[in-house]
Amino acid sequence: MAMQLDSCFGSFFLCIFCFAWFLTFPAEAAMRKYQFDIGVKNVSRLCHAKPIVTVNGRFPGPTIYAREGDRVLVKLTNYAKYNISIHWHGLKQFRNGWADGPAYITQCPIKTGHSYTYDFNVTGQRGTLWWHAHILWLRATVYGAIVIMPKEGTMFPFPKPHRETEIILGEWWNSDVETLVNRANKMGLPPPTSDAHTINGKPGSLFPCSLKHTFSMEVEAGKTYLLRIINAALNDELFFTIAGHNMTVVEIDAVYTKPFTTRVILIAPGQTTNVLIKADQPPSRYFMAARPFMDAPVPVDNKTVTAILHYKDIPKTVIPSMPKLPAPNNTNVALSYNKRLKSLNTPQFPAKVPLKVDRHLFYTIGLGANPCSSCQNGTKLTASLNNITFVMPKVGLLQAHYFNIKGVFKTDFPDQPPVPFNYTGAPLTANLGTSLGTRLSKVAFNSTVELVLQDTNLLTVESHPFHLHGFNFFVVGSGIGNFNPSKDPAKFNLVDPPERNTVGVPTGGWTAIRFRADNPGVWFMHCHLELHTMWGLKMAFVVENGKSPEESIIPPPMDLPPC
Fold first, then answer.
1. pTM value?
2. SS3 of 239, please?
3. 115-121 and 64-67 as β-strands: parallel, antiparallel, unpaired?
4. DSSP strands (E only) in 64-195
5. 374 CB contacts (<8 Å, ≥6 apart)?
6. Which residues does UniProt assign to the signal peptide (predicted)?
7. Of 163, 236, 294, 333, which has the most beta carbons under 10 Å away?
8. Which residues of 438-462 are buried (b: 16+ CB within 10 A; e: fewer)?
9. Model pLDDT for residues 192-239, shown as the tens digit of each residue
């Protein structure tokens, strides 16, 4: 039986209805079918109207509902002028990279007038994830939530909420995003920052022409609610808070955490966070608010987006209370929040941290500049890992690997940077050139990997949220300054570190992750700041097949888009 649900963002009551209907859906109906029509729709925000790319005419797009163990089929038909692909962010896609979605990594994009069915199983995962376009900057408007309920009869490891809703944080540009990006690339410079942030596609009443473009969530006094918060912004880490109310963090990136209470969360692009809130304040109207965190000399859209927590029966004429957000450069709040994140690590939900490491990797993150005769300053800004700026291929890397197509990529991505230096010392503004290449790292099946991601002061230090496709990983350590391989591993948390798919590397610091390479295929790893991804801050792992068919990549689907 097919199930199609529209996005819940237009109305909280619609969300309640959709969710209640899902909960009563027959347990034996283990196949969920969706139709995604990619098209263009005129949308008005901030007194500006423009055509945007959407799914099913919705902004944000429809929520995918599933239950752990389900099979999901999403038939995507492209009616827009751009080629398109969709990434199901955080779904592991075991042996099934064909459904992962990043253009020219696991598939060629779906051309105008063509269709492709993403066919995947939801195995061993439950919680909040999300989906988004994974080509050009189209994810500025092409994105939505994925809600995975636990298996039938399995309870949340926290008190059952009265109701729940999705809170998707995004960005809005008044001008056409692709036009801005193309113009900036020709000059070798970054495009302008966004004109507003959004909550469920709406910038909130602090912006002009936005009284009707403010998301509102009704609550009843004394009830507890689950917020599924997603950062779909392209380039900004965000602080999020609710006036007068505590939040209890219970999940990150679809992995349960040890619960803790906080007044503010930090959420990087690509990350999800589930929080419980109790409507325990005097009945009134309260602003939810988000604003960027940036503790480096880098321009951001520093305006505040708002939505409203509205107690039932309170008149809409009541002016909402405004929360106090941390200063945009408050590093201490950011670091202390991330230190509180720990895996639940119970017998039912264990933290299977690799204790023995087969492969040690150390990747430096750098900005740079390469010669460009047609650019404004004679150079083009770029980014690199281990001084390699990734060059996108013309053929999907997974196809090239599976069919053994020669000349598409090399598997010589280095395990260490070419030249050690004082990575986080004084800013380095000379010798900023990088090498270019489509270079991948080959990893043996089921081997354990430790990767240290080290920020550098090439041009400037900056926080970088890194996303690894095809896997969750454990964030075993993090610190400010240069990673010390002889001292820092002794401080690693190997008992209950946070498990996630996207992690922030702190400004002028490092982060260490561990994972088991038990998913054969070609898996993208990149900074989830769209600007840096565009500049080449990305690479991919080729995880080899195991010894049996059950440990090998499945054959490609018949309708895989041609290159």
1. 0.94
2. strand
3. unpaired
4. 64-67, 71-78, 86-89, 115-121, 127-133, 143-149, 163-172
5. 186
6. 1-29
7. 236
8. bbbbebebbbbbbbbbbbbbbbbbb
9. 999 999 999 999 999 999 999 999 999 999 999 999 999 999 999 999
